[in-house]
Amino acid sequence: MTSSELWTRTTAERYDAEENEMTSPAVLGPTVEFLAALAGDGRALEFAIGTGRVGVPLRERGVAVVGIELSEPMVDVLRRKVDEATLPVAIGDMATTRVDGEFSLVYLVYNTISNLLTQEEQVECFRNAARHLAPGGRFVIELGVPPLRWLPPGQVAVPFDVSDDHLGFDTFELAEQILTSHHFTRDGDSYRPGRSRHRYAWPAELDLMARIAGLELEQRVADWDGSPFTDDSTKHVSVWRKPANSA
Ligand SMILES: C[S@@+](CC[C@H](N)C(=O)[O-])C[C@H]1O[C@@H](n2cnc3c(N)ncnc32)[C@H](O)[C@@H]1O
């Protein structure tokens, strides 16, 4: 039983329809190139593959991709783009579901490790990635840096998007390390509300989870274009490696 919220049919149908920068060639191009370089001649496993935003173009780029995904409605949308033989997907929890074979790359993008709402499950997710990796293989995570610098004492929310079509802000349960993202998306003349809960974690906590799972930090950059990770970075792309001599 996972703590993740289940993505519904309505959310799945909207996921690809609502264009944002994450579906733009400017983001997807460097994402696919970064992941393809790490996969090399091996196979790639995407945890929480969703509608295939990244998995489908990576497959088209020539990498053999397999997915794990909790939400059947999200996979139904993916199936309109690619069949099971070309891109197999197992329905299940990325922290526990096992698929056949070894992979040179396991990846989990777009902040999705934070959908697991407990530290224990996030550790299990790292362990599950390590289980699927061949010796020398890599686990890649794309995740926002917790935006706590913007939360002075007494303030309850941090806005992350204020535009004509979308208002977004985060609220925090600091003792529990949980943030809730609130969205108000323009729908005709009104705004449609939405929200999602996340367990945020600093990069250093992820490094510890990786060590528990037997993985070593190889690289941390600020984005898919490889720009340096700094004090002011708002997200990171981190790469951990399973030692070549591991069982
Ligand atoms: C932000 S979307 C990312 C989808 C895709 N990776 C992408 O980059 O577009 C988050 C996805 O994670 C899935 N998800 C959430 N918790 C999960 C879990 N515990 N195991 C597997 N999938 C999960 C959701 O169903 C949803 O499809």
From TrEMBL:
Molecular function, one GO term: methyltransferase activity
Species, as recorded: Agromyces ramosus
Protein name per Swiss-Prot or TrEMBL: SAM-dependent methyltransferase
SUPFAM superfamilies: S-adenosyl-L-methionine-dependent methyltransferases
InterPro entries per record: Methyltransf_25, SAM-dependent_MTases_sf
Ranges for region Disordered: 1-21
This protein's UniProt keywords: Methyltransferase, Transferase
UniProt cross-references to CDD domains, sorted A to Z: AdoMet_MTases
Keyword Aminoacyl-tRNA synthetase annotated: no
Organism taxonomic ancestry: Bacteria, Bacillati, Actinomycetota, Actinomycetes, Micrococcales
